Amino acid sequence: MSITDDTRAPLRSLDRFFIGGQWVSPSTDATIDVIEAATEQLYYRIAEAREADMDRAVGAAAEAFHEGPWPRMSHQERAGYLRAIGEKLRERAADAADIWPRESGILHASARAGTAQTGKIYEYYAGLADTFDWTEPATPQAGAWAEIVKEPVGVVGAIIPWNGPPGLIAWKVAPALIAGCTVVLKNSPEAPGAGYLIAEICEQIGLPPGVVNVVTADREVSELLVRDPRVDKIAFTGSTAAGKRIASLCGERIARCTLELGGKSAAVVLDDADLAEAASVLSAAECNISGQVCSSLTRIVVTRNRHDELAEALAATFSQVRVGDPFDEATQMGPLAMQRQRDRVEGYIATGVREGARLLTGGGRPKGLDKGWFVEPTVFAGVDNASTIGREEIFGPVLSVIPADDEEHAIRIANDTNYGLNASVFTPDVERARAVARRLRSGTVGHNAHRTDFWVGFGGFKQSGLGREGGVEGLRMYLENKSVILNEVPPGS
Predict the structure, then answer these.
(1) Does 249 share its domain with 270?
(2) Catalytic residue chosen out of the listed positions 260, 376, 393, 469
(3) For 399, which DSSP code?
(4) Nearest Cα to 411, choosing from 263, 307, 264, 267?
(5) Is the pTM of this model over 0.90?
(6) Domain count, the chain
């Protein structure tokens, strides 16, 4: 099958890159096969960016920022383009919802709900054109008048992971655009469809050339984007290991970066919590994208006297999850995204058994699913927080129940991790939940649920990242403060 053969993906121009407002031919004939997670069959084939292609994309973004109209438009003018993107995304929501499950394994029902919201992200940031304080008055100690101006950081390299591309693209591109930045969007090789869809929309609405450029590349060429001195900021979502590499490269040239990285998030189940309800909530949450979510609550911390009851309730609930075709409305959990991810998860399960954790349910491949990268919902009991499965991010449907001596010990266990992305407190007492939440070292803490909210802001403590995405704080990540100090008060001020 050639790159130009018929494809089931609702996309076009898969043999090209979107650079400088045009679909351009690649510098080589290198291609990437995108494999459908549930069938292991070829879904479509795309062009793979090499060094010359990345150089061209960065050059287009740099020219658009330094020479083009985009940064010099008013915020209201840019907002018009963002609203147009949001409108077109609503029109293409069905296409986005068809692509995402095939690439990443998310349920089609969940993909429909998620992609239906994506356009609102662009509309939200468009609204900040009128409400955000783009300039602030200041009182200088020298000079007659001063203001602080919020200006775009410059050219942004946005690096997107494979698990949730539609939303993660929007939370990077939308604030960058309203700020006045230009963007090189680097798709994941495993899940480039959402990026191609955005490129088609940018072309359709007449976005000025070079403002958004879209390429797909593997790690070696992606590193060229991070190293390029014409790129002022990197916005990355992915593993902590990759984030460390990006941070070190950005540090070499003092480039800005926002890093949304891994997690090993704790659910602290207090002694007054309803264990059956907690088990139901935690099991259902872990079905989302088959546990391939950085904010998953995979460490379940509970006092010893309630440990066995909760572990057994989790095993009973999680083992009943129906695993299968993500397009079947009866399915509750789909496959993992790729073979190497299933190999990774199975490796961690074997390590958990070898290190002495009790496997209560799962641990293998679901019966009758001979094709597709499926893994059974898995629960371990009696997990040592210092063990491999207690400390390392698995990124699959594996829950670890960890016993604690008491509430104080549970909080110490929850905080005893290199990560700090998400957490939750299970208790019917809202004051108690708030008190414990304030003691957890985590970017988000929910109550009686897996809760994250990009509209409020999302990001992590410790090795879970730098900076925030979403909300007003997400916009600030794409701005630089400039102090303007004048010898006289300008007219009209």
Answers:
(1) no
(2) 260
(3) E
(4) 267
(5) yes
(6) 2
